[in-house]
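Protocol step 4 of 6: structure prediction from sequence.
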Amino acid sequence: MFIREATKDDVEIIYDLIMAIARHHNQEEHVLTSQQELLNAGFSEPLKFGVLLAEVDKEIAGYISYTWNYSIWLGGNFMNIDDVFVWERYRGQKVGEALMIKAKEVCKNKDVQKMKWEVESENQKAIKFYKHLGADVDIKGICRWRVG
């Protein structure tokens, strides 16, 4: 298994992965991005997001997408993970764990002390996985307010 940063040549597979996780959660209608938007936002300055891709036998097995945010409480940046997704045929092969460990390395290399992400409170399998990695899982409400 090999984990690497995505490049602009990966935009099509990144889009496919985004749509796959959206389908997995029955939320396809919420995906408003396009391959062109991904190319512009993730691979042109200023970079607005990053993606780590997991490869198994030269095939993409899964991904993590993330952004950098600033916390006034921390007094520094933190990694906000948007998506963690592994194709079904690669699940149970520690692909997700390898992606999370690599994301943690990216943070350490940037002297970032914290990572955050969301998990559905009923997704007990994911919660167990994150706790296995050593993450604290706080059950909080998430507020969303469309302004446009």
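Step 5 (inspection) to follow. Residues 2-133 form a domain with the Aminopeptidase fold (CATH 3.40.630.30).
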